[in-house]
Amino acid sequence: MTDTTTWAETDVGALQRQADRRHRWGRIGLYSGATLFAFLAAFPFSWALISMFKQSNDLYVKENNPFWFNEAPTLEHLRLLFLETNYLTFIRNTVLVGLAVTAITLAISLPAAYALARLRLRWGERMGIAIFLVYLIPPTLLFIPMTRVITSLGLQESLLSLILVYPTITIPISSWLLMGFFKGIPMDIEEQAMVDGHSRMGAIARVVLPLMFPGIIAVVVFAFTLSSHEFIYALAFNKSSAVKTIATGVPTELVRGDVFFWQSLQGAVIMIAVPIALLFNAFLDRFISGFTMGAVKG
Question: Domain spanning 85-297: which CATH class is it, in words?
Answer without folding.
Answer: mainly alpha
